[in-house]
Amino acid sequence: MPGLRFPSRAHAAGAAALAAAAVLWPLRAELAAVPLALFVAACLCAPYFPSWSFFLPIVLHGPRSRPEVALTFDDGPDPRTAGPLLALLEEHGAPAAFFVVGRRAEAHPEAIRALLAAGHELGNHSHTHDPLLAARSVGRIRGEVQGCQRALAAHGVRPLAYRPPVGITSPPLRGVLRGLGLRCVCFSCRPLDFGNRRMRNLAGRVLSRVRPGDVVLLHDALPEEVPVEAWLHEVERILAGLRERGLKAVALSALLGERVMEHVEGGPAATAGASAPAAESRAAPAPGWLARSAQVLQAVFLVGYPVLVAVSVTYLGARAAALLLLGIFLAARLRTLRQDLRKARALAALGASVATLLLLAALLDDPRFLLAYPSLVNAVLLAQFAWSLHRGPPVAERFARLSVSDLSPAEIRYCRTVTLAWCAFFALNGGATTALALWAPRAVWAAYAGGLSYLLVGLCFAAEYAIRKARFGRFGPGLADRLLARLLGRARGSP
Question: Are 195 and 219 spatial neighbours (Cβ–Cβ below 8 Å)?
Answer without folding.
Answer: yes
